[in-house]
């Protein structure tokens, strides 16, 4: 029996047009993506609402999924509409009201040269119940480790894409942060400015202005990030998109992460392990979760749960 500890309530996986029992599906050990990370993926969430489960910004996620596939030269076997329908079917087939959804295109079994010329592209979609990414205490604030290694640079790789192989850097550095006693990592870019977390975008708040950075700062421009920019403006906050220096980050009144998995969570403490720094804990702002982040977070969670009709356009309801 397969261990389901980290995949609660998952029953079936959608694979190449059919549902399979969660414990049934296997791949050949010579699958191309297993060796070289030649895969692309999305992280999507569905939330419970008064109208049933709803997927947050499904069209935008599927669009990015296909952009990612194009970056790695995949001839995708399914069109956008069929992928979106399969995602909704997967949520429904698992009987989930609230879940994390992982669609994955990958180069499958065929050859093991670096160029997957004989490896077909296949699609798998999974869904399971997943609560707060950083645990139930994350709303009180996270501690982060400012890494000595720099984020992959936008001149080296297309930062629009969620490439499986590129995320090995995130895995390694996430482990490093935890070894240092922190909840999460933060990357600088090659220019020495703030980039992002291993799987999260970053916002700062200074004198009432919310600021995040752009793809030119070596980040993935997240869908949650884009949503938060719109939410903040609608709440009356001034917003800005531009470079964030390390000093800007350290001097911020507030800072917070955004992302599909992490949602919106404050950053309250930092250990600076970047080059030339003395690694000692420092507080961000007051060292406690701030008012601006709290208001953004509360509004965001209302939106995804269908409690704010202004943003219902962002929800795709799972058909019964």
Structure write-up:
By secondary structure, the protein is of the alpha+beta class. The chain folds into two domains: about 10-130, D-amino Acid Aminotransferase, Chain A, domain 1 (2-Layer Sandwich); about 135-305, D-amino Acid Aminotransferase, subunit A, domain 2 (D-amino Acid Aminotransferase, Chain A, domain 2), CATH 3.20.10. Helices cover about 25% and strands about 25% of the residues. It has seven helices and 16 strands. The chain has helices at about 30-35, 60-70, 80-95, 170-180, 225-235, 245-250, 290-305, and strands spanning about 10-15, 20, 40, 45, 55, 100-105, 120-130, 140-150, 185-190, 200-205, 210, 240, 255-260, 265-270, 280-285, 315. The strands form two sheets. Strands 1, 2, 3, 4, 5, 6, 7 and 16 form an eight-stranded antiparallel β-sheet that branches. Strands 8, 9, 10, 11, 12, 13, 14 and 15 form an eight-stranded mixed β-sheet that branches. Strand 11 (about 210), helix 5 and strand 12 form a beta-alpha-beta unit. It is globular.
Brief rundown of the structure:
With 320 residues, the protein is of the alpha+beta class.
Defining key terms:
single chain; 320 residues; alpha+beta; D-amino Acid Aminotransferase, Chain A, domain 1; D-amino Acid Aminotransferase, Chain A, domain 2; 2 domains; eight-stranded antiparallel sheet; eight-stranded mixed sheet; 7 helices; globular
Instruction: Compute the separation of the termini in Å.
Output: 30 Å
CATH superfamily of the largest domain: D-amino Acid Aminotransferase, subunit A, domain 2
Poorly predicted ranges? none
Q: Give me the secondary-structure category.
A: alpha+beta
Helix and strand element order: EEHEEEHHEEEHEEEHEHEEEHE
Q: How many distinct beta strands?
A: 16
* Largest sheet data: 8 strands, antiparallel
**How many helices in DSSP terms?**
7
CATH class of the largest domain: Alpha Beta
Provide the CATH topology of the largest domain.
D-amino Acid Aminotransferase, Chain A, domain 2
Assess the beta-strand content as a share of residues. Answer: 25-35%
The CATH architecture of the largest domain can be named as Alpha-Beta Barrel
Shape: globular
Give the tally of structural domains.
2
Q: Report helical residue fraction.
A: 10-25%
Mean pLDDT reading: 96
Q: What's the Cα radius of gyration?
A: 20 Å
